[in-house]
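task queued by scheduler; priority normal; single chain, no ligands, no partner chains; default sampling; output format set to structure tokens
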Amino acid sequence: MPSAIPSSLSGLAIPAGCAVLAAGLLALGTASPGRAADGAPSVEFSFPNHEDGIATAEPFRDYADSFLVQGRNAGAKDVKNVSVTIDATALKGQITMENEPCTKKGDLVIVCGPDRVNQGKPIAPGAKFYAAAPKFTALDGARPGFTGVVRVSAEAEGVLLGEKTFKASVADLGLYSDRNAPDGSPVPQPKPGTTVQPVVGFRNFSTRAMNDVYFSLHLTQGLTFAEEFSNCKYGSQYLPEDTAMLCHIKGTVEPNSTYDLDMSALKVGATAWAEDWSGNITDKVMTGTSLTDPHQGTGRELKLTKRAQGAALPMSRGVFGSIVADTFRDAAAVGATVDGKSGQVVKAELGLRNSGPATFKNWGEEPGDDATSGLSVTLPRGTTAVNVPRNCNLMTPSTSATTRYSCHQDSKDFYFNAGQTTPFVFDLRIDEPKALALGSAKVIYLGDKHPENDSAPITVTVDGKLGDGSTPPAGGTGGSTSGGSTASPGTSDSPASPSSGSSPTTTSAGTGNGPMADTGAGALRWYTAAAAVTLAAGAALFTVARRRKAGRA
């Protein structure tokens, strides 16, 4: 990634820092050294977050940096009714300027009136004040390296108090994507077994010619490459189910020119659901994008094709696209039936099963997002949980007539694979045989095609009978019912039964299911994968997440 490209963090942090700095400047009101000796009204300008006096404009409006303009009363008396004008007419045809909430007096002239400057209050001698914070964005057809002069001036009641200039320059960014499909169109819904065609195009937003291009593309689990190229390596990346390609493409890329890649189609797999691809294109060897079990492609060579220069297309920070396959997902609850004696501890082997056909993410788009599926467990009356799975949280107060837990997937498991069952094993002590009644296990969060299997009973009996003496219905209703077992008081996996009202033990073992169950990576895997994708695709990941959420909504 070229050094001129700020990361998504810096793109967000700099404007935030400017806001904090601006707030501090608004609060300043004490005199400082350097007051004009002759006492004439005077304002001096400075640029505290750009001391070099250069504003860099990139073709990404969402990441535009604020250029903070600070003023100081250099005179001996208060000044009132000060207005500040930013005149950037020299940037016409190359760069746009915005500065809310000041008033636009033309495409490239902005006036911050007396009601905006220093919040409309008089400015004491030596006091600093926030003057303006314009944002500059390069036009899509801008010329990399262009530089123009911007003039800042202050006046009060028609009298010029001071002025200063700074420069705005169009960044020389190198290679950037300017074609992504679909873009602004409905998200495709292909059937499993068909293909989708990604569109990859880019512009050399630079004055430099380049002789080598490096391209990467990462696919989520439901997509695979329909064709492999001889100048690309292939393997899994970040997660065992995800695949990627890393390519080295030779050929001269001319300055300020546009190109397309003759990219192959992508296969939609049997377990596809909400899938996406994301990648990056650059003139530098990529770091942080290694493959697991890599192999060299053996097909034709991936090549560049120069595109006829036409209307400039919007540029983005990466290559991306997404689909929602024309299929469905089905999560089912797994209940349990166990029998025991009064005071005995029995194991209720509950679970959450993905009956397919689609595999889907256990968690949301970004670290910290909520789980996409879970299990709500209501214990049978007459029992007490003495050992609770570590991913289950108590949701009811101790005074409640029923006890309910909310269970979620292990943070190590990024995908809930088709055919996978996540177990939640509860050790239940039979305290009141005469009060025994059916409990339940219910799927939560997820809406799917078969709601009839979203609930399954939890049955605990003594001598095959419930508390009212009835025999529970065979098999119950809804989702499947597993067997159970009696936990012997002396065994290592069955702690001694605590007295009534004591806190249950939480098991330390994980779910033991899913692609990441035994890695020991924990939540770190999630953040490491996200960080790696960010290194590979720049800030494209953030854009992809927003587009996927918008498309799926």
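post-processing summary
- Residues 8-27 form the longest helix (20 residues).
- The first strand starts at residue 43 and ends at 46.
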